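Model: Ready when you are.
Researcher: Fold this.
Model:
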Amino acid sequence: MDNECRCARNVDCDSGRCEGYLPNLVCEARLANGASCNENSDCSSDYCSWSFKCDDAPVAGPATGTDGGSSMTTAIIIISIVGVFGIGLAAYFAWSKKAQYTEVPTDVVV
């Protein structure tokens, strides 16, 4: 199929890239290195890096790429830790404020 033709799967397209949102999927050309991507089939190199950019496929070896994946993972871990700490701190202050209240009598004597 040519570009802009309707498709259901990547294999339906000559380029091997079926893009869009259901039900409006169309064939599109693959992207050059440096372009934004969200899956390997978006790129002419067949590799979408962890930083969502088309790049040359990494050479097999240690899991430390130059695509920013390790720094992205570090950032996610730090944000997660700060988030958990923030939730814990908010729960602590909510609980300690509750302990400072005095009970209001609900019995009314007339």
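Researcher: Now this one.
Model:
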Amino acid sequence: FLNLMPKLRANLLIMVPWDLFACSMVCRRWYNEARPLLDSSIQPGMFQTLRYTECQLTNGLKRHIELLAGSRRIGLDYIDLIKQVTIDLLSTSSDFQVNILKALFVLRPPNLTHLKISDSCRYYDRTFSIVNQPQNFWPPIRRLSLNNFRIPNLHQEGMNSLISVFSTQLESLSLANCTIPHTTHEILSRCTRLRYVKLSGVEDTGEGIASVLSSWPELRHFHYEHARILRLKRIVRALNAECLHLESFVAINTMASHDTPTLLKIVTSLSRFPELRRVSLFHIGMDYDEDLVPHGLRLKYTDWKGDVRRRIHPAPRSDDGAWPELRKLSLRDCGEDFAESLLGWAVQTSPKLEEISVPFQLMERNALNVAEVCRRKTTYRNADSLRRKKHLFIMNTRFGINNKKDAWI
């Protein structure tokens, strides 16, 4: 191969890079000679996440794990690149599939810290018998993500056992589309090192998550998708009392818009957190509570997304409402009046502001309107231009995607 003409060698690398790369994993001589030629075709970063899902061919995964084992035997570090394993329990319904997964954990990847498990249809005892062995993970799992553990009688034991196994070392926990019964609350209270918690589409029963927040004194980031105003009240009250180091708060409202004023008054209490730097409020409804504006004194990032239509009037006084540390303001999908008034106010009172995402319809009028709001001269530049911090970069957003034309102020 190395004696081929450079052009032929390049074509061969394009046609069969995976086969050649596989050889480099189990043959040190081939690794030393050909690996520099392969780096441009295949990046080692592909090893960081290993997906064990229904979409993957079982034999292909088996071969992948065998190659990882072979590379370790000759002193290569491919196994060290693995940081996350994603498992769909639907893909572990047979003993053969479970044994493949077991072969991976026997290798004990030293940098594996994130485990993601999704239960697409049912709970398999044989899979949890492998995952629930802490000796398979060293260093221990620090990030755990569970999805679709919704049926209490079927999934409760599996979810509880997973959290329990890693509870003393967990720093990040994400639960999506899960039911959280009172027995799970007890186990969550053991996760005293948690710094990041994300709850999306969860059915929180009993006393709720608020009852365990006192066990998370190191919590820094809290993401909560809610549909029950009373439960949110308890959570915010508990956060204020127990989680004084909170840096980021995300609230996704799935309630009817008539509950929005109450919701916003609750969120304003977040101003009590001395280290809070980011607040994101999604789908906050038709009204806007002006009390939110003066409470941004320490914020660096704030994000509104939803059908907010009312203009801020009168504009907050600069001595009351200035956000001197604000770097980024996002107003995606907000009403034009609200976005325009908050945009103008933020630019005037936030000297460190670097970036604003504005609604598509506001930019559609023309850039001069935005320039008038900002009271600065506007010029257009290509969206791929390098960002210059001494200028303000305004992104034109639609459907969550930046438009080709952006404005530099």
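Researcher: Key takeaway?
Model: The first strand starts at residue 49 and ends at 52.
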